[in-house]
């Protein structure tokens, strides 16, 4: 019976060289697997002889708050919400996890997400007095295997803020949505004053304001670990790791934004900011970069279901159609 | 019709929070996608409304040499060979690619594999005069998106060897098998004299010799980027990147080996070696480490379908059963 349910829930999509089936699963089913989240007891009737079995990836699990009792309806809301957020393609498929209002891919080596995907509209961002940021708490993500999980203690006395990748202010529909942005899997060590609390926050607000211009705004946010030329003339990647779990401190952060106009025109903007003090008077436009440069550095392809040639503008400049 | 074929080829396996379907696809089908290997035109009849579509991962594509005409039979051989190699679980599921005699996961950010998996037996390693190493050529892996692909030019004048992860000497059944180990996706920048050509080679030979002790030997090989305490008392990960594609030079390499005895007993050994000159007189045992330490550092779980409590020995020491 179980196998039937699984098969029914499986969306099959043909990738280049791969098919990925997708399955929306309740959080409660994860509980027994905390120790080895990526392994599972394999039901024999689900396998075919001669084909390898994939034992891994916590792929796109909608995570629902424990207080949420109405799982059935919630789940169906979630799956369509996730399709909406991820409409233009996944940047990569490494340890993808979906929350109620954002989706992320977790980098188990660096203990920071590879990318976080959000979908913003003016309506979704409107003032909601039900939601209280002061009630949110930074929480370790129990769905990540303990070997790879970042903890609050890692950040303590590190000198870095727990910086949101999916911004709290983007998820004001429900208290649960905002609380989920406080999961440590959505955090990266960020310089506090001058960055997280200032220029990075300016960029987050700028992206929210794009919902006044575009009907739909899609934003992908993540860390970069960029090389620098050192004294010997060679290039090195160098970054600090904090706490006993060695949480990586990214050298830079990116945001790739796609705005869709009411008449279905697409415009893209790409930003890279150093994880450092930035003067509040430095214009955000100074941090615009070609999207390809972020793709190369991050090892990801952004909005790959949306052909670049279909974009009207990149970084404010018209693309010859 | 195509959708039927795809669905038929899909193995569905229930992971914690995810189902991954697996599809063996011919290399020739990749040709048109060189520019955007991870994107694909989605057949509408393959999707269900309300479920997200995974647009990515070149998951476990058996790569067959172009000279190989008999694709049908080859493909079925490959899939069972891949199940054999991956019998005890995938360490991770990021950009998995399968060759005829080994399977790897490619790290698109660092342009070096995350891990390479091999299965060795005495019979498979026996002398074969059909196979000539001198005919093998280092070849860029065209199945990797050009943004993330390492090239021979990256290694040129870098001072590093193109070091095999799946060792050439482990794949002597067919010329094709050995040639595939010369794909640059199976290479990492390694210190030449004193490491690649010496102590690392000693370790590779040691692993081959384990086939005299065990009926089956499974070996997973990969790079590490380990942090070091610097002068300021903080920990930093620091590694060189070479060439215009910024191929990462790992600080260390690991090998996790599982030997299965004729009476189905399992023993595990784990080694970590610095990517540096190592004296030929240093015993290999000096490089043995707890497997968990490699898992934490690499962000991977090795042999996760094989419970650690079922192992008879780890690093030569008996485990209390």
UniProtKB/TrEMBL annotation, chains A, B:
Highest classification ranks of the organism: Eukaryota, Metazoa, Ecdysozoa, Arthropoda, Hexapoda
Keyword vocabulary terms for this entry: Disulfide bond, Endonuclease, Hydrolase, Magnesium, Metal-binding, Mitochondrion, Nuclease, Transit peptide
Localization, UniProt: Mitochondrion
Protein name: Endonuclease
Top class in the EC scheme: hydrolase
Hydrolase among keywords: yes
Catalytic residues (UniProt): 164
Cofactor: Mg(2+)
């Amino acid at each position: 019976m179980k196998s039937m349910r699984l098969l029914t829930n499986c969306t099959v999509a043909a990738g280049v060289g791969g098919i990925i089936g997708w399955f929306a699963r309740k959080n409660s089913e994860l509980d027994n697997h905390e120790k080895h989240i990526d392994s599972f007891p394999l039901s024999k009737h689900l396998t075919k002889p001669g084909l390898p079995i994939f034992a891994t990836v916590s792929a796109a699990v909608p995570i629902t708050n424990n207080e949420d009792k109405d799982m059935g309806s919630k789940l169906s809301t979630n799956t369509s919400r996730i399709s909406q957020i991820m409409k233009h393609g996944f940047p990569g498929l490494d340890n993808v996890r979906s929350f109620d209002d954002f989706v992320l891919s977790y980098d188990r080596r660096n203990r920071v997400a590879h990318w976080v995907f959000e979908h913003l509209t003016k309506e979704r961002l409107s003032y909601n007095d039900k939601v209280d940021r002061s009630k949110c708490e930074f929480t370790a993500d129990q769905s990540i295997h303990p070997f790879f999980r970042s903890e609050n203690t890692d950040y303590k006395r590190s000198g870095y803020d727990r910086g949101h990748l999916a911004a709290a202010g983007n998820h004001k529909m429900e208290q649960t949505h905002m609380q989920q942005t406080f999961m440590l899997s959505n955090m990266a060590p960020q310089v506090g004053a001058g960055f997280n609390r200032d220029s990075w926050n300016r960029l987050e607000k700028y992206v929210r304001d794009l919902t006044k211009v575009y009907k739909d705004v899609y934003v992908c946010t993540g860390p970069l670990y960029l090389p620098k030329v050192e004294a010997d003339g060679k290039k090195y990647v160098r970054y600090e790791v904090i706490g006993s779990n060695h949480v990586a401190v990214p050298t830079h952060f990116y945001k790739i934004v796609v705005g869709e106009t009411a008449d279905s025109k697409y415009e893209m903007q790409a930003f890279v900011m150093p994880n450092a003090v930035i003067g509040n008077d430095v214009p955000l436009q100074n941090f615009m970069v070609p999207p390809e440069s972020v793709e190369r550095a991050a090892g990801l392809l952004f909005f790959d279901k949306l052909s670049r040639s279909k974009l009207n503008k990149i970084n404010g400049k018209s693309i010859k159609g």
